[in-house]
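User: Sequence in, structure out. Go.
Assistant: Echoing your sequence, followed by the structure tokens.
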Amino acid sequence: MPLPFIKAEGTGNDFVVVDLRGGVGPAQAQAIQDPAVVRQVCDRHFGVGADGVLAILPSTAGDARMRVLNADGSEAEMCGNGLRCVAKVLYESDPTLRRPRLNIETGAGVLACTLEVTGGSVQNVAEEMGRPRLTRSEIPLSPGTDERALSEPIRARDREFRFTAVSMGNPHAVIFVDDEQDLRALAETYGPALEVADRFPRRTNVEFARLRGREIDLVVWERGSGLTLACGTGACATVVAACLEGRLAPGAETPVHLPGGTLAITVAADYSGVRLQGPARIVFQGTLDDGRLSAR
């Protein structure tokens, strides 16, 4: 039987969403989570094309569980834009979950999603992203101590940068650019080297950010996916880093402008949690035949 999927996007961060909770054979469920198959499906020329595959799985802790598989086949602990897409798919396709608040299990814990619904369609989702992890051992960052990495120097290729490290369940290295350098060019040029730097034992997402008053322009090099149009956890980590560096004060909503759109981020005054709010949209639906579920 062909495997149904939904192509969804949140501020341009696009995904192939597959609901594996029921009606799907174990062989199909295993195949779509195989790294080689994920790479084929996410290929933008020979596959569906996506930044990753989101597998919806059963959960004993929440309404459902989200597994995030990057375009290169690796697994991510969490994906903010993906979580909104999964919440939308669950609400609109599962009558038992048609309620304004869903609790979804992720690699970063069970996260609450509050849905804004118009005419039966989810337009926006507010996600409670949990507590930002700030110590080197939590992120993780080498050496793994209980200290924070604030404006820490790091060298990549021919440049030295200063980064602040934050984990939103997945690691981020946030670099603020105080001049008019092109953020996308910086991400494309230095993101690949920083992602795999020795200091990051699980690799890292890399953010290049610029403040404009109380708003932030942001381009992200995502671990396992490369340059993307948006990164929800990256937007959260960037606002946290801006507060830690004294560039912003926590407690107020901050618009973060990414190539794919704008996300609204609020860091709790005591850093006990972060709220992310943004859109989710279904692009199209389709099926994957057995040929697409075989690793080549």
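User: And one key feature?
Assistant: The helical segments are 26-32, 35-42, 80-93, 183-195, 232-244.
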